[in-house]
Design a protein that fits this description.
Layout: H1 7-20, H2 26-32, E1 39-44, E2 52-56, E3 59-65, E4 69-70, E5 74-75, E6 79-87, E7 93-102, E8 107-114, E9 119-126, E10 137-143, E11 151-156, E12 169-172, E13 177-178, E14 186-188, E15 191-199, E16 205-208, E17 212-214, E18 219-226, E19 239-245, E20 251-252, E21 254-256
Parallel strand pairs: 1-8, 10-18
Antiparallel strand pairs: 1-5, 2-3, 2-6, 4-20, 6-7, 8-9, 10-13, 10-14, 11-12, 11-15, 15-16, 15-17, 18-19, 19-21
Keywords: Signal
Protein name: DUF4397 domain-containing protein
Domain DUF4397: 39-154
């Protein structure tokens, strides 16, 4: 449970941000002390899927969302909340889900996922328990690779021998997040990294990204997705990573190809 902060803590944080430009936005402070309205966004992670509308309690919240698009965060009400997505211009759900107790200070993510036929849905409740003074990046992984093994994901400095380190995000199963929904993201220092993916418990890479920069205060959801047409297996060259970056402007997820195969 998010620790209840006092008004004095809020005032101190606000004063600190004013004085030194701190790492957190005013929205982040509001989330941390549990007074910010709950926010939700949608990630279209269904390769080859149609443009869709994102519905909350049966009404369109964001519309005409294409594959790889990450919508801006939008405020929603607290309490029991139904979510779904439908082909643009319709309200017939391709897939739907439910958050039983939407709470202030939390971020919610809904993902359109591939299925062996049609589409599926993924749900993440992020309590956003970042320290008020922290400038660390936040990371979470999600497995959107249907019928795949569980995955280990390493976010490591270029040139790291993964035999010498533990996975950054372990045993990420299909339709599941690590850390799990309802738990806070993990925290890392900003810097240059590569992403390496193995099947859970293995040290044999099936995916490796090019080097990328993870900025301080970044808020990343790293999603494994199948390359179109390869929904039933997980083999070298058959997954990509989508990185959805949190924020308040609509933006596409960054898609990282596999340097092991050039795909």
């Amino acid at each position: 449970m998010k620790t209840i902060r006092t008004l004095l803590a809020f005032a101190s944080a606000a004063a600190l941000l004013t004085a030194c430009g701190g790492g957190s936005s005013s929205n982040d402070v509001g989330k941390e002390i549990g007074v910010q309205n709950p926010e939700i966004h949608f990630v279209h992670a269904l390769p080859g899927g149609p443009n869709v509308d994102f519905l909350v309690n049966g009404s369109p919240l964001q519309t005409n969302i294409a594959y790889k698009q990450v919508t801006n965060f939008a405020n929603i009400n607290t309490g029991n909340t139904n979510v779904s997505y439908a082909s643009t211009g319709t309200t017939t759900a391709i897939a739907s889900g439910n958050f039983p107790d939407v709470a202030k200070g939390h971020e919610y993510t809904v993902l359109a996922l591939p299925a062996l036929t049609g589409g599926d849905i993924g749900l993440i409740d992020d309590p956003f328990d970042k320290g008020l003074l922290s400038s660390s990046a936040r990371l979470r992984a999600f497995n959107a690779t249907v019928n795949a093994q569980n995955l280990d994901i390493y976010i490591v400095a270029p040139g790291t021998d993964i035999n010498t380190v533990q996975p950054t995000l372990s045993a990420v199963g299909f339709k599941n997040a690590v850390p799990a929904s309802g738990q806070d993201s993990i925290y890392m220092n900003g810097g240059n990294y590569v992403a390496i993916v193995t099947t859970a418990g293995s040290k044999t890479a099936i995916y490796e990204s090019a080097s990328f920069n993870l900025a301080n205060n970044a808020d990343w959801l790293i999603t494994t997705v199948p390359i179109s047409g390869t929904l039933s297996q997980l083999l070298p060259g058959q997954i990509h990573l989508l990185v959805a970056q949190g924020g308040n402007t609509s933006q596409p997820a960054v898609e990282y190809s596999n340097t092991l195969t050039g795909q």
